[in-house]
Amino acid sequence: MGNILRSQKQQQKPQEPVDPHGLKPATAAIAALTRDLRSFESSSVVNVNCIGDGDGFTAYVAIRDDPRELANVPQEVYEMLTARTKARIRRDYWSADTLRSTLDKSGYKIIICSGNEILARKYRIRLRGVDAPELKMPYGKESKNALEKLIGGKSTKIYVYGQDQFERYVGDIYCDSVFIQEEMLRNGHAWHFKNYDRRPEFSAWERKARAARKGLWASRNPEKPWHWRRDERNERHGTIEVYSS
Q: Is 35 a residue whose pLDDT tops 60?
């Protein structure tokens, strides 16, 4: 399990986030089901196939590893698990596969860990404070590949601060003692999303990458991803939408 980044010099590295209720991450309630978001740590590796682009991925928290998750599993999920087990025993694999698909849609997933099937809760994660090029944009695939190298096949610690309009959990990501947003910004794999995050160190990391012409900044005038998305929406709907900077 990746350890949370602990800086030796406060001015150089961001401090570990503090839970709003003063609780340590190990004891802070995940509370994702109640929308009272604090922090949680993913207890399974991030599969590279679960990384959508340079600023988002899907994490799975193993139910057996977190008593809080275990206490919040809906009864219907247990019923689906029981029904799937019975279907497999009688070799009704079509029903078993259908139940597994239904389980996935309910926000849970059966994953393989050390050869065993375990139940995990699904969380869609959005990196807080950065915006990566979309996959169809120039440097979109490179940005995704950069995030894959940082977290693919590894465990992450995720500090959640809220949810966005797409119901993704927005948070700071740490993996192998590395602050992921810092790495993405320092190496020019993402923009600082200033409309939603004003942390000055994020702007500083972006400026340094831009000055060094790293990553997407090798292009002299890269298109901002939020402008690209705006233009895509305008083209689909025939409307005019204006963003500042």
A: no
CA–CA gap between residue 215 and residue 209 (Å, rounded) = 8
Tokens of 225: 């991803």
Q: Over the range 126-141, which residues count as b (16 or more CB within 10 Å of their CB) and which as e?
A: bbbbbbbbbeebebbe
Contact 153, 179 (CB under 8 A): no
Q: What global pTM score does this model have?
A: 0.75
Give Cβ neighbours of residue 176 (< 8 Å, ≥ 6 apart).
Answer: 2, 3, 154
Name the catalytic one among 84, 100, 168, 186.
168
Tokens coding 176: 């192998």
Which residue of the set 16, 41, 69, 134 is catalytic? 134
C-alpha distances out from residue 58 to 47, 52, 101, 129, Å: 8, 8, 17, 17
Active-site residue, from 38, 121, 126, 186: 126
Note the pLDDT tens digit of each residue in 92-137: 999 999 999 999 999 998 888 778 888 988 889 999 999 999 999 9
- Known catalytic membership, residue 126: yes
Say what percent of the chain tops pLDDT 70: 78
Task: Indicate if the alpha-carbon torsion angle 125, 130, 131, 135 is positive or negative.
Answer: negative
Count of positions (residues) in the chain: 245
| 168 is annotated as an active-site residue | yes
Residue 213 known to be catalytic: no
Q: What are phi and psi of 104, to 5 degrees?
A: -60, -40
